[in-house]
């Protein structure tokens, strides 16, 4: 009887302890942490599927087409468009299998060692991101070939693509690193400071953030260089100062140059020859180091002003005239 009563009291006390823990903030935090991990596995599965379509519905068929007697695309162009795509797919297949193996051991979830496998391979992503704009440019050039365009539309009509274009699949890897950073940030928010994985997850997050900053800076630099070259090509005479990679584009627009009147006389116009009887419209480009002033011909082409067309901003002083008159 005593044994029975002790067992009953113990079970009642244990039930109270379990119920108290279930309602505790720590248990709620652990539930949210587990849900983040489950969502991460689902997102990784979807991402691997997208990479599989990119490689099997586009990369490999185009690689075979490039080896045909009348290739619609060259092997170099295929490599430029799909740089590292296949390697990224293999990398995430391994990562996804590792995640599924961890889920099989639930409720024990150890994830930090998986990120330790992923981190050394992230330079592959860096190359892909750096090449992304160029790959889209090469793809746009290839689409001008009717044979290639027709073949690509056949591939995009595959039911697996669900109406998405090749450009869409090439863009997916661009957002994966930021997605991991957000996931790790949420995971750490629900991971106790004494947790065995805390330091490893923080290290993985810091490395991913560092890589993300580097990739963002590289993409910005590449975009800036392309913008400068695009402007340089629109100017008939060309402009050597735009070939400086440290020259950053800020903005462009039209300005109206008005005749200057001083003491009843028309003063000399400094910025190029201009009819003093009417105002003149100038197309202007502002950069960090220079200010370009152009005229637009009737054909739409831009011409730098012969005098004062390129103004250096390095040693200039900006003076604001407060007198309204």
Count of DSSP helices?
A: 10
Shape: flat
**What name goes with the CATH superfamily of the largest domain?**
Dbl homology (DH) domain
Distance between the termini: 107 Å
Low-confidence stretches: 263-269
CATH class of the largest domain: Mainly Alpha
Number of domains: 2
List the helices and strands and how they pair.
Blueprint: H1 2-22, H2 25-66, H3 75-81, H4 85-104, H5 112-118, H6 122-142, H7 146-156, H8 166-171, H9 176-189, H10 198-234, E1 249-257, E2 261-262, E3 265-266, E4 280-287, E5 290-296, E6 302-304, E7 310-312
Describe the fold and architecture:
With 325 residues, the protein is an alpha+beta fold. It has helices at 2-22, 25-66, 75-81, 85-104, 112-118, 122-142, 146-156, 166-171, 176-189, 198-234, and strands at residues 249-257, 261-262, 265-266, 280-287, 290-296, 302-304, 310-312. It has two domains: 9-234, Dbl homology (DH) domain (Dbl Homology Domain, Chain A, Up-down Bundle), CATH 1.20.900.10; 240-258 and 278-315, no CATH class. A hairpin with a 2-residue loop joins strand 4 and strand 5. It is flat, with a radius of gyration of 31 Å. The chain starts with a helix and ends in a 13-residue tail after the last strand. The model is unreliable at 263-269 (pLDDT under 50).
């Amino acid at each position: 009887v005593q044994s029975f009563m002790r067992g009953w009291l113990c079970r009642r006390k244990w039930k109270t302890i379990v119920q108290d823990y279930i309602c505790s903030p720590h248990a709620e935090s652990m539930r949210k942490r587990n849900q983040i991990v489950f969502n991460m596995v689902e997102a990784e599965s979807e991402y691997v599927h997208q990479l599989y379509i990119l490689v099997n519905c586009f990369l490999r068929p185009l690689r075979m087409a490039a080896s045909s007697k009348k290739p619609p695309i060259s092997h170099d162009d295929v490599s430029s468009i799909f740089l590292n795509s296949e390697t990224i797919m293999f990398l995430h297949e391994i990562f996804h299998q590792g995640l599924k193996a961890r889920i099989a051991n639930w409720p024990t979830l150890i994830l930090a060692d998986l990120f330790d496998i992923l981190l050394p391979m992230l330079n592959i992503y860096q190359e892909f991101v750096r090449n992304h704009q160029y790959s889209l440019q090469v793809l746009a050039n290839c689409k001008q070939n009717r044979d290639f365009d027709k073949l690509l539309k056949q591939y995009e009509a595959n039911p697996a693509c669900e109406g998405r274009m090749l450009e869409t699949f090439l863009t997916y890897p661009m957002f994966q690193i930021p997605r991991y950073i957000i996931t790790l940030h949420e995971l750490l928010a629900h991971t106790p400071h004494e947790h065995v994985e805390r330091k490893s997850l923080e290290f993985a997050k810091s490395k991913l953030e560092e890589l993300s900053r580097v990739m963002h800076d590289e993409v910005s630099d590449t975009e800036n260089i392309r913008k400068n070259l695009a402007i340089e090509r629109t100017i008939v005479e060309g402009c050597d100062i735009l070939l400086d990679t440290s020259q950053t584009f800020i903005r462009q627009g039209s300005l109206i140059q008005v005749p200057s009147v001083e003491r009843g006389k028309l003063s000399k116009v400094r910025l190029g020859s201009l009819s003093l009887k009417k105002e003149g419209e100038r197309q202007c480009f502002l950069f960090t180091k220079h200010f370009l002033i152009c005229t637009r011909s009737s054909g739409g082409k831009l011409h730098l002003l012969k005098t004062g067309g390129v103004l250096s901003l390095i040693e200039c002083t900006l003076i604001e005239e407060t007198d309204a008159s």
